[in-house]
From TrEMBL:
The keyword Cytoplasm applies. Transmembrane segments: none annotated. The keyword Nucleotide-binding does not apply. InterPro entries: P-loop_NTPase, Sulfotransferase_dom. This is Sulfotransferase. Its EC number is 2.8.2.-.
Length: 296
């Protein structure tokens, strides 16, 4: 995999104070100029907060729980990733979106201040999913180990520091979750938590349904709960990212559908690391009370 690492592992560069992959940065003016339609819906997350899960739920809600229709293409084609460059065989987010008619469902990891202004001017719906910092960090660590388009994560201890300092791709987790939280009423953002989705997926799927002005029966919601369980999605080739070439997502290191649990952080943080992290967390989150749970 040495050759692949040399080809990929794109470095991060600063875009308006946010570290983004240099490929995203090269394309930044086109991304920023994206014309949203009022009917477009944005699904926004910090990386590894449950984006793919939410995308699958939304697609099934839009198609009345029809599993076959929702296997028409990989997640990244059904719900394009706004700022991402082409990753063969998938075209860039902007190229896919150009060919789609509104209403389009669009994924992004951009912090709120970098979301193209058209989304706000057109009062687009935005579904935001947040995951507790420690599990989010653990998930991102494994992802950065296996995804050769991301910078090398380095050793665990250093990775924790980079997360705390906001030095990972898409920047600070703390600023990301707070940025959307502060604006959620004013901009009509549906703010969801990964932990709530794990605890009671039926309840959270109904919240998404109502936000999208859809009306599905309880039986269909139950079916969507089943179809979007970790176990079922892990085996669904159109939802588990198995189409990404092995030279890009190295399955010998980790898989995209890794564990899907709340509290896996307890297997990684030592008690001392956990205490140090919590003290820093209290400082970084002091100005806004976002009700995260690290265990359920
Ligand atoms: P883990 O690495 O903790 O397993 P994203 O889609 O934002 O990249 O997030 C990926 C994380 O969500 C991974 O977490 C992945 O396993 C988890 N995930 C994906 N589908 C899920 C599902 N249906 N239920 C629970 N977790 C899911």
């Amino acid at each position: 995999n040495k050759a692949a690492s040399a080809l990929y592992r794109f470095p991060l560069v600063d875009v308006q104070g946010i570290p983004l992959s240099n490929r995203i940065a090269q394309n930044w003016s086109s991304t920023w100029a994206f014309c949203a339609d009022p009917s477009d819906v944005l699904i926004s997350t910090y990386p590894k907060a449950g984006t793919t899960w939410t995308q699958e739920i939304v697609d099934l809600l839009l198609h009345n729980g029809d599993a076959e229709i929702c296997r028409r293409a990989p997640t990244a084609v059904r719900i394009p990733f706004l700022e991402i460059n082409s990753l063969p065989p998938i075209p860039s987010g902007l190229d896919l979106l150009k060919k789609m008619k509104p209403p389009r469902f669009i994924k992004t990891h951009l912090p709120i201040q970098l979301v193209p202004e058209g989304f706000w001017e057109n009062k687009c719906k935005v579904i935001y999913v947040a995951r507790n910092a420690k599990d989010n960090l653990v998930s991102y660590y494994h992802f950065d180990r296996m995804n050769l388009t991301q910078p090398e994560p380095g050793p665990w201890e250093e990775y924790v520091q980079k997360f705390m300092k906001g030095k990972l791709a898409w920047g600070s987790w703390y600023d990301h979750v707070k940025g959307y939280w502060k604006e959620k009423e004013k901009r009509n953002i549906l703010y969801l938590f990964y932990e709530d989705m794990k605890e009671n997926p039926h309840r959270e799927i109904v919240r998404i349904m109502l936000y999208l002005d859809l009306s599905l029966s309880d039986d269909i919601i139950d079916k969507i709960v089943e179809l979007t369980s970790f176990k079922v999605m892990k085996d669904n080739p159109m939802a588990n990212y198995s189409f990404i070439p092995k030279a890009v997502f190295d399955p010998s290191v980790s898989t995209f559908m890794r564990k899907g649990e709340v509290g896996d952080w307890t297997n990684y943080f030592t008690p001392a690391q956990s205490q140090m992290f919590d003290e820093d967390y209290a400082r970084q989150m002091a100005d806004v009370d976002v009700p995260f749970r690290t265990l359920i």
